[in-house]
Amino acid sequence: MDVNVTLAGFVGTTPRLFTSQNGTPFTSFRVASTKRYLDRSSNAWVDGKTIWFTVKAWRQPATNVAESVRKGDAVVVTGRLAVDEWTADDGPRTDLVVEATALGPDLTRGTARFAHTVARRDERATDAAAGEVGDPAPDVEDSAAEGEPEAEEARSDDAAYAMSA
């Protein structure tokens, strides 16, 4: 059974891009999430316990993370929770790992600009067959070829919807 989680926190280590033994790229970095609460007796915000997670992203998202995320960034991560256990010199250790299915900047703490990644059609087909999550959005030529509205039409539709909401 998969346990899916969403966490918000700050990137605590520089994301590092690796290649697995079978040639699959992946990125790994640590995120710290600290609970904050209002102490009503002092009417002040207080930091609670900090929980550290290792976040891993695979395939194209791994490259996107390595190029976009920096130590200190506020992020939101959604993915499958796993536990890594191993034995260190000082005894058994446990690490909480989130295998990211989606991640990005925490826009409650700042602003960002999004840029689509462009992958060749044959790469997307291979990734989709492998069950990759987080495939890049199709580029404009692909959208038009598949009967979807041109980018300008889509933007105007979104704007019209936003104004009517």
TrEMBL record:
InterPro entries: NA-bd_OB-fold, Primosome_PriB/ssb, ssDNA-bd
Quaternary structure and interacting proteins, as annotated: Homotetramer.
Signal peptide: none
Family matches, as PROSITE patterns: SSB (PS50935)
Biased composition (Acidic residues): 138-151
UniProt GO molecular function: single-stranded DNA binding
Gene3D superfamilies assigned to the protein according to its UniProt record, in alphabetical order: Nucleic acid-binding proteins
PANTHER family: SINGLE-STRANDED DNA-BINDING PROTEIN (PTHR10302:SF27)
Name of the protein: Single-stranded DNA-binding protein
GO cellular component term of the entry, any: nucleoid
Top-rank taxon, per record: Bacteria
SUPFAM superfamilies: Nucleic acid-binding proteins
Keywords, ordered alphabetically: DNA-binding
Any one biological process term the GO annotation gives: DNA replication
HAMAP family in alphabetical order: SSB
Protein's UniProt keywords contain Protein transport: no
Ranges for region Disordered: 120-165
CDD domains linked: SSB_OBF
Organism: Paraoerskovia marina
